[in-house]
Structure formats: C-alpha cells, structure tokens
Amino acid sequence: MVFLDKPRGWTSRRAVNELVRLFTREGGKRVKAGHAGTLDPLATGMLPVLLGEATRFADVGLDADKRYVVTADLSRQTDTLDDEGETVARFAAMPEREDIERALAGLRGDIMQVPPAYSAVHVDGRRAHELARRGDAVRLEARPVHVRGLALLEWTPPMLTLAVTCSKGTYVRSLARDLGEALGVGGCVTRLRRLSTGGWPEALMLPFEDIRRLGEQCVMPLSQWLRHLPRLALEEAEARRFVQGQRIQMPEAGETARPGEVAVFLGDVLLGTGELRPGLRRMVLHPRKGLPSARRALGL
Q1: Neighbour-count burial of 4, counting CB atoms closer than 10 A to its CB (0-12 exposed, 13-18 middle, 19+ buried)
Q2: Nearest alpha carbon to residue 170 among 109, 227, 226
Q3: DSSP 3-state assignment of 218?
Q4: Start-end of H helices in the chain
Q5: Which of 5, 40, 82, 178 is catalytic?
Q6: Which of 149, 218, 228, 272 makes an SS bond possible with 290, Cβ 3.0 to 4.6 Å?
Q7: Is 97 helix (H, G, I), strand (E, B) or coil?
Q8: Mean pLDDT, each 10-residue run in order, the chain (300 residues)
Q9: Separation of alpha carbons 117 and 252, rounded Å
C-alpha cells in the first residue's frame, strides 16, 4: 500500500487508476488496487491506496477516524457546499469569534448529520450527486456521526479555518454548512486537506511524482497496515490449517488468549487475519481473511 498525497482536482477513482498504471508491469497482469476512504476532487491529502491482496483490508481505513484542516467562506453558500458549485446565497454580516466558538461546541461529540446532496450516498439505487446534477430533488436522512475534535484555527472574516477529527461517514462540507446555519451565515468550503487516516502520520504522504520516481520503494507492507491488531504466531502445521480455513484450538493462557481480531503470522510471513473466540476449554482461532500469498509460501 502507498499513502498518496492526492492533488486537488483528482477524483479518488482517478488516483487509484493512476497508481494501477504506475505499478502494472508492461505486458503483465493489471494490478488490483483500491482506496481506503474517498476524498472529494476539491480535497487534497492522505489517500491510502491498497495494492494487490491488501485490497481485502480496505475496511481498516474506511472505518477509521480521519483528521482534516478545512477553510470555509462564511459570506456565501453554494449548492455543492464547496467552491465547485453555484452560489445560492450571500451574507454580509459576520459573527464574532465568541459566537463561532459557541456554535462549534454544538457540533462536537455524537451528532446527527445530513450528508450533502452532492455526495456518494445512495438514494433509490443511485448516487445522490448523480440525481442532483440532473436537477432532481435530493432528500437525505440525517445519520449519526461522531466529531471527536473541532477547533477554530483562524478567523479572518469571512474566511474561517478549522481542525477536524471525525468518524467514518462524516462530511466536512456538512459540518461547514451546519456551522454557518447556526450562525446565520454561509459555509462554503474553499480548501479541504486530509492530514491523517487512522492515526497514520502526515509525513508518510507522497505526491504522485515522488511515487512515480521511487516506485516500489514507496510500498508499505500489509503487515504495517494491520499494525493495530495483536500479532498471533502459529507453527507451520497450524499455519497450513489456518490458510485452508480451518479453526484452530489455541494453547492455554498467554497474551494471545484474549478474544478479538488478530493478525496471524508464520514467522515474518503474514497469513491473514482471524478472530479468537472462547471455546469449551480454550480459545479458538477462526480464520477471517486469508492471503493467497500465504498459501503459495506454504506450497498449497
């Protein structure tokens, strides 16, 4: 996997396609790839792109908290809630900093949020943005999200900059809209940059040109992407059973006896992920996602 610093103007799909072309060897089989968390074309920043069998673990990024810095123009609002849409309202009077701080307090924690009409949310089997672009009325239901952090970094009327840490499914454009509505002004996002996915540091991001130049040197092993999981080591006989999808009774006691998801290894070879569940007498390892490379390494 690689951490792309996605440029403004690229869709997440284009970013993946560019990396597929880059890592597919001439005359070879097309590399499988996918991203772990969509970024709007307007947005820049961290886009984890998973390659090959790592795509099986995209949910690690999709489910993770994200961290952003966003700048919004409170003097106007657009139909898309960002710079790329048509202006639908303008506002002259601007709030005081104290008013903004009070409004931000109401947007922290567990909140209900209505996604933007121009978003990838499905409505009757179609993407909301497809319906909106053809002029259909789009009505989306509010859904629960969690805003872990929301801080005012800069206020130079009418431009406001925020630091945001939020759960999956949170739309930063909707946060800017809701803040503007609470203040009686606009909330048009002019700049959005993702700094982190799942706690991965900003320093890991690389521009596309650097990835083009460095090639395979940029690719991080899948075991690192699964760093949040406890590591469970198996012997070879157990490893063979695991990659064939068989359940394994574990030895008694020890750190590995705790229930939950684990990353499973044979030495330094990642076999996949499993789940430890209590059995009648011992913990039992249930295979979840095995890796074809592990089967090959074991000659299966």
Answers
A1: buried
A2: 109
A3: helix
A4: 12-23, 59-62, 97-105, 128-133, 172-183, 208-214, 222-225, 236-243, 292-297
A5: 40
A6: 272
A7: helix
A8: 96 95 90 93 96 94 95 96 94 97 97 80 58 60 94 98 96 96 97 96 96 94 94 93 92 66 95 92 91 89
A9: 54
Is 139 within 8 Å of 131 (Cβ atoms)? no
Alpha carbon of 247 to those of 128, 143, 283, 290: distances in Å? 42, 38, 10, 12
Return d(Cα 194, Cα 67) in angstroms, integer. Answer: 6
Q: Let me know if 65 is a catalytic residue.
A: no
Which pair of tokens denotes residue 65?
A: 């908290």
Do residues 48 and 200 touch, judged by C-beta distance below 8 A?
Answer: yes
Question: What domains does the chain contain, in order, with CATH numbers?
Answer: 2-63+202-221 (3.30.2350.10), 66-197 (3.30.2350.10), 229-297 (2.30.130.10)
Is 31 in a helix, a strand, or coil?
coil
Q: Which amino acid does the sequence have at 118? A: Y
Report pLDDT for 282.
84
Tokens of 189: 């996002």
pLDDT recorded at residue 140 = 73
Residue type, position 25, single letter: R
User: What's the 3-state SS for 108-165?
Assistant: CEEEEECCCCCCCCEECCEEHHHHHHCCCCCCCCCEEEEEEEEEEEEEECCEEEEEEE
Rounded to two decimals, the pTM is 0.89
Rounded Cα distance, 179 and 157, in Å: 15
Cβ atoms of 254 and 283 within 8 Å: the answer is no
Quick check: 272 and 243 in contact, CB under 8 A?
yes
Cis-peptide into 144, omega within 30 deg: no
